[in-house]
Amino acid sequence: MERPDLAASIDAAAEVLVGVLDTAVSRHRLSVSPTQLRVLSLLSDRPEINVNGLAELLDVVPSSASRLCDRLEAIGLVRRMADPRDRREVRLIPTAAAESLLGEVRSRRHEAVQAVLDRMPARMQQDLLRALLAFAQASASTGAPDASARSA
User: Fold this and answer.
1) What is the CATH number of the domain that holds 76?
2) Is 54 part of any domain?
3) What is the pTM of this model?
4) What is the pLDDT of residues 63-88, one digit of tens each?
């Protein structure tokens, strides 16, 4: 019997997971695009970030990141604030409305993933948990990029 390709299986599972997460959010009308949602998530996780730092995380030019923030600021989800330590620096701060939106999205995603897990036997859920923890630990020990920089 041929051994399954573990990397291909993980890649396929990741595609399914992304589909579950995207479907959980896309069923509901959001006032932001997936890219804007990602920006809000990045800003929420990094309270000291400025436009240049955001552009680096997004792998875009600073002017593109700035335009994204302009749109988010116009709809009340981001505000720009001078850094108290260096007034030349401008920090990007998600508003309370942005944090509320992110909480709602996280809740929907959690519910969607839980619905899939509920269809799995408890033993398989525990095996999955152990495998995911081991994968995360192995990833951290190799200096892999922070997962939160790639997701929303």
Assistant:
1) 1.10.10.10
2) yes
3) 0.78
4) 999 999 999 999 999 999 988 888 78
